[in-house]
Amino acid sequence: MASKFQNRLVGTIILVAIGVIVLPDVLDGKKTHYKEEIASIPIKPELDSDIETFEVLAPEDDSAALPPSPVEVVVEPSVQQDSDIVAVVEKPVPERNQYQESAWIIQLMALKNADNAANVVKDLQKRGYQAHTKLENGFTRVIIGPNVSKSKLERQIVELEKITGSKGRLLKFKPLNP
């Protein structure tokens, strides 16, 4: 037969095993399980029966609001010699840009690397200059302006030389070929 110690040891092991298995379930109480509520997204939303309609208007003729284009009148004598009929021919006059002879730009530098030119332009724009880039013959030119005040741009050349270290050239602004 087994000794008292062995009986107590087996009894203790059984009690501890029951305690480890049963007690957590008893002490937890009522278990709650959370389920995420999943809402399905409809493939095609349902529309109300009231459909909005919009009226598309025809474009208006706005040519009457424009000023008439300048016309040069040329009087040409008629080919017939026996009558005094004179033919009047209207030829449109090419329009001149008002800034064509009075605007100026500063060509600051020409760089091979367009990214470097863009960085210089961003820096100058942050400092308040009207800076632009122009791609020409494989170079990216950094241009300041245009401005109608030649003296203002001449002062800016000195300031820009201090900022960038390059001396710019003052050039006439050509609006059709900037």
Structure description:
Keywords: Cell cycle, Cell division. This is Cell division protein DedD. It holds the Pfam family SPOR. This protein is α+β, with helices and mostly antiparallel strands and 178 residues long. It has a domain of 69 residues: Sporulation related repeat (Alpha-Beta Plaits, 2-Layer Sandwich), CATH 3.30.70.1070. Helix content is 30%, strand content 23%. It has three helices and six strands, in the order H-E-E-E-H-E-E-H-E. The strands form two sheets. The chain has a four-stranded antiparallel beta sheet, covered by helices on one side. The protein has a two-stranded antiparallel sheet with strand order 1-2. The relative contact order is 0.11.
How many helical stretches? 3
The biggest sheet, with number of strands, parallel, antiparallel or mixed sense and barrel status, is: 4 strands, antiparallel
Strand content: 15-25%
Outline type: elongated
Total beta strands: 6
- CATH C-level class of the domain at 104-172 is Alpha Beta
In the CATH classification, which architecture of the domain at 104-172 applies?
Answer: 2-Layer Sandwich
Mean pLDDT: 77
Which ranges are low-confidence, i.e. pLDDT below 50, for 5 or more consecutive residues?
none
Oligomer: single chain
What would you report as the Rg, rounded to the nearest angstrom?
A: 45 Å
CATH topology of the domain at 104-172, by name, is: Alpha-Beta Plaits
Spatial separation of the terminal alpha carbons: 115 Å
Name given to the CATH homologous superfamily of the domain at 104-172: Sporulation related repeat
